[in-house]
Amino acid sequence: MPGRELAALAEGSRRSFLVVGPNALKHLPSWGRRDNVPLAMSVAAQAPSAPPQEAPHGPVPVPDFEVVPRKGLILVGIAAVAVIAGIASNKLWPLDFLHVAGGAAWTIIDLFLGLVLGPIMGRLSIPARIEFTTKLMPKMVLIMPTVVTMTLAAGWQLGIETGNVYSYAPNHGWVVASYIVVGVMAVIALGLLEPANIAVLIELKKPRPKPEVIERLMKRFMYSAGILGAMQIATLVIMTKIASG
Amino acid sequence: MSERKLPPVTEVGMASLALIVAGGIYLSAHLPQHVSLGPAVALLAASALLMVVNLASLARVQGFAWNRFFEVARWSLLAYVVTAGMIEYVFVHNHLSGGPLVVLTLSLVVFAVHVPMLIGFTVARYYEPVECPGAGEFAGAPSTSNGADAVAAAGGAHSS
């Protein structure tokens, strides 16, 4: 490839390779760099025995994956049926279960993703990040909308049953505060997080995915998840306050 | 990265979603009292207007990867219609009727159209016209050297 630098990435026992143009290097703030060292320099430090000129050509491997895991749709369908059945039954236990189980999953995933996994992902090597992304993000495409719908639909019906959603309820101010927190979270999740989730997966499906696009979308995803994680703390405060009367 | 000048679809979309969320909060915060629908209708109208403005501004973009946009948006639309349907079921199940039901149903329509649009836009904006099958009409679209290098940066990375 005339006019191009060839850089090899040594990653554990596995070797992966990335062809880097000089201009492209400038646009790879962290996806294409390691510890603020440009990719080529990082490679030289990691693999001194493999001079760039002699490294074999090859792509960064992108594992095969489904953008929307079809098998997971069965579980989504089961969850949707459970929510509809729970609402139709108007019984406290199923509604409580769906709301608490969905809410717990939603809160924990947001907190864990934004505050734990996000920073870890930022420090992974490029191949590790790609592999992790292709395994995590398709699951998130199904999990997050499902747990959010489950939590909110069952929660609203639960509020109707317990009377918490009515303006005369003693905790009504806290309930309205939860609407506002959830509303802000919904706008961030629907406007930023979910589109970034889908877009990064489709970018990775391209014959030549662009590292800077993935970098940008993953940053957007992780920052959104971090904000949502922080807002989940507010949700926890509100919900425990309502539950304790 | 080659960055085409695109309208602020995501920002406008989020503003539109925020308006219908605000309308929903206004109505639900006053239950079971009878409240004036005026503010909720105004918020819904503003939200719908932003959606139309968003669609119009996106439609004027030349060289946009429309085939990719529609491919993603239609599946997202299916998913969000199902979600909106479940929410509508909750409204009907709780005997909501009249003006509030109309306002909330129309809010769900805006939600179910706008979110898929945002997803389709976010995906399609990163497609160069040459990457889209059958995108011959976009052949004249600009491509910078940075864009070419960015493609090279992936160096033939591929999936299935």
Number of helices of chain B: 5
Order of helices and strands of chain B: HHHHH
Q: How many discrete domains of chain B? A: 1
Low-confidence spans of chain B: 133-160
Tell me what portion of residues of chain A adopts beta-strand conformation.
5-15%
Low-confidence stretches of chain A: 1-56
- Order of neighbouring strands in the sheet with most strands of chain A: 1-2
* Class derived from helix and strand content of chain A: mainly alpha
Radius of gyration of chain A: 22 Å
Structure description:
The complex is a heterodimer of chains A (245) and B (160). A two-stranded antiparallel sheet of chain A has the order 1-2. Chain A contains seven helices and two strands, in the order ββααααααα. Chain A has two domains: 5-54, no CATH class; 70-243. Chain A has 245 residues and is mostly helical. Chain A is elongated. Chain A is 69% helix and 6% strand. Chain B is mostly helical. Chain B has one domain (9-131). Chain B contains five helices and no strands. In chain B, α3 (66-93) packs antiparallel against α4. In chain B, 41% of the residues are buried. The two termini of chain B are 24 Å apart. Chain B is 68% helix and 0% strand. At the A-B interface, β2, α1, α3, α5 and α6 of A face α1, α3, α4 and α5 of B.
